[in-house]
Amino acid sequence: xxxxxxxxxxxxxxxxxxxxxxxxxxxxxxxxxxxxxxxxxxxxxxxxxxxxxxxxxxxxxxxxxxxxxxxxxxxxxxxxxxxxxxxxxxxxxxxxxxxxxxxxxxxxxxxxxxxxxxxxxxxxxxxxxxxxxxxxxxxxxxxxxxxxxxxxxxxxxxxxxxxxxxxxxxxxxxxxxxxxxxxxxxxxxxxxxxxxxxxxxxxxxxxxxxxxxxxxxxxxxxxxxxxxxxxxxxxxxxxxxxxxxxxxxxxxxxxxxxxxxxxxxxxxxxxxxxxxxxxxxxxxxxxxxxxxxxxxxxxxxxxxxxxxxxxxxxxxxxxxxxxxxxxxxxxx
Amino acid sequence: xxxxxxxxxxxxxxxxxxxxxxxxxxxxxxxxxxxxxxxxxxxxxxxxxxxxxxxxxxxxxxxxxxxxxxxxxxxxxxxxxxxxxxxxxxxxxxxxxxxxxxxxxxxxxxxxxxxxxxxxxxxxxxxxxxxxxxxxxxxxxxxxxxxxxxxxxxxxxxxxxxxxxxxxxxxxxxxxxxxxxxxxxxxxxxxxxxxxxxxxxxxxxxxxxxxxxxxxxxxxxxxxxxxxxxxxxxxxxxxxxxxxxxxxxxxxxxxxxxxxxxxxxxxxxxxxxxxxxxxxxxxxxxxxxxxxxxxxxxxxxxxxxxxxxxxxxxxxxxxxxxxxxxxxxxxxxxxxxxxxxxxxxxxxxxxxxxxxxxxxxxxxxxxxxxxxxxxxxxxxxxxxxxxxxxxxxxxxxxxxxxxxxxxxxxxxxxxxxxxxxxxxxxxxxxxxxxxxxxxxxxxxxxxxxxxxxxxxxxxxxxxxxxxxxxxxxxxxxxxxxxxxxxxxxxxxxxxxxxxxxxxxxxxxxxxxxxxx
Lengths: 332, 516
What we know:
The complex is a heterodimer of chains A (332) and B (516). Chain A has 332 residues and is mainly alpha-helical. Chain A folds into 2 domains: 1-174, no CATH class; 178-332, no CATH class. Chain A contains 9 helices and no strands. Mean pLDDT of chain A is 85; it is low at 47-68 and 70-75. Chain B is of the alpha+beta class and 516 residues long. Chain B folds into 3 domains: 13-109, no CATH class; 116-168 and 469-512, TATA-Binding Protein (2-Layer Sandwich), CATH 3.30.310; 198-444, no CATH class. In chain B, 30% of the residues lie in helices and 33% in strands. Chain B has helices at 2-6, 14-25, 28-42, 44-47, 55-64, 68-74, 84-113, 138-151, 170-196, 448-467, 501-509, and strands spanning 128-135, 155-157, 163-168, 198-205, 209-211, 219-222, 235-245, 258-268, 274-280, 285-286, 291-306, 312-317, 321-322, 329-335, 342-350, 353-356, 359-362, 371-379, 398-400, 411-414, 419-422, 427-444, 471-479, 485-494. The mean pLDDT of chain B is 89. At the A-B interface, helix 2, helix 7, helix 8 and helix 9 of A face helix 3, helix 4, strand 8, strand 11 and helix 10 of B.
């Protein structure tokens, strides 16, 4: 196949993925919407159960402390869900997997087209990142029930792919000399993976803050949120995801420094990209620090994590395009 | 608020105040505040041009903003990472860090050397707890649990006959401390490199030899503790420089983009041993004491100036500095030996030249149609005697040589091999050929190994502190409802909400499988 054909196929795969993911997003939204009536019906039953278990405080504690990352945190099991909701979730999951396969195909075809590791400009970072978010979500889904998270993962991915194909799209090109290094595959891949995990952490953090506000509200409004894991569980998931991403980001910065010495002669130049990578690192370190600080509210700690994600967005969307520096590889 | 003032407050003496300040500084809250401040403080360095990175852009920015520029300059916004306030933030942060690490190290040291604490009376009060009645004598059951705990790498200690105290995961705190201490290591490594490292830049045309002595450098930035007269006496001869540019791509911005640069050199070390070595981007030449990076390149047209009798006054490969991506380059030729007045030429070298209403400029970085566009001046080249750039002409004490056709400025356009006869017997100037030059940057950073090792330790410590769990388990055994039965109670105390504790207890109790 010629490069031209590969390029067309790659773009076709990305466009198809966007269509499929849009449908997945709708199915995931339908799933959440259909959960609500079930809640109403289940409420009576739940009240009875509460009375039964009221004496066993220790038991409640034990189940509360169920492993955050591996065990289902949805309060009501699959069987208690209305059939419509279960169907929608099934469709959403199938479409998400299909969308993931298509994005992977888009990235692989792009790599074949450009004859190098496909992380040389903003378009490639964006589709690679979308691929990682979806892969992380799919892999994690095989270990626990994450159907409730689908909508909040697919939506940002879709937004990112949309921006990638319209605003950041760059025709295939060779790399400039400073990018020709094995460190491109190491440094940028880990950076992208780390950002992908941070993205899921961001979604969870936002959900936690909403859930927390709903739980403390005196008159709790009816919404699908009451069928999602409770605030405590969401906060733990947020933390669990961030402690995976943070060491990867640390590695990204170290690998970047090693590469910077190879390419530019000095491992740290305070280039705008380096400044923002440093800022991101410090802000997420502050999040972990805040979470470990007694007397600091978990909500405030999560806010710091959200600010960290804001810095990631700045580092990608603003620094790449508008700041003058040595990392000017946007291809725009 | 009169009620408040009535409260008798303890009086703090000077020592008390010092202790209070120290406590405040080393508290987690202050550290958190300083971390956030560090993040905010770093940002201006990316939004304002920095003198250490791009001095020309910094000067231009200050000139463009006559009100804000000087104020921000005084506040250090153009040298953020060397400014006193940025240093204050990170130094306070490190003091706070040390103040936090020291007591924690002492505590960990004591904990690691002393036995896990005595089991609490009521294990069911602990966050995770399980009680079972199993077959077996009390002592036998306890022994089986002791073995099970040891197998799960717990430190086990029996304070009395009915209990076991077990603890593991000391590496969590150790990792956390390693992380923090390694951060100090990174800072020391960076400071070490700053004090004892140096960098120098030099432009070497093809065919020329660079000797590593201070006087040969175009710019040289030594750290405060560097002995500038003790540089390794090696030489580098540039034999050839290959440059490749994009000629296939159709998309804008890609045509003419650089693709590869390679400098072929002969490296002669201090002992006089020579060997061919190549330098490419991402592949520096390691000299032993430092590294030579190929960070720039450009053109050095070979220019010869003769006097009226044909005697050569000047003949050299003269580097012209590239100004844009298509290598429109500027430079100067200075001929102090010309008589009766010294001669100087300034202008452009264009690898693929076009001269239109935009003035002389190049449209492609490779030398497809090299041209030299110069103007000539005569007078005093070095009026003040002070050092000046070799790439520009100081025309303060010079006058333009008038054109032959009566124009007030002589304009010379040369292609390789062409000679231009200067008016009124001033001689001639010849553009012999085009050579390339390599912009080499030579750097040493003795702190870099330390920084790297400390960073990797930091990463390892970080992973350990996030992955490893600190767990305490307590076992209490007692006689069961009938002889031969034993009641086992296991309680778990986890630090920093550990959701795996019930599983852990279940796993320990599985050692009693088959005796229930």
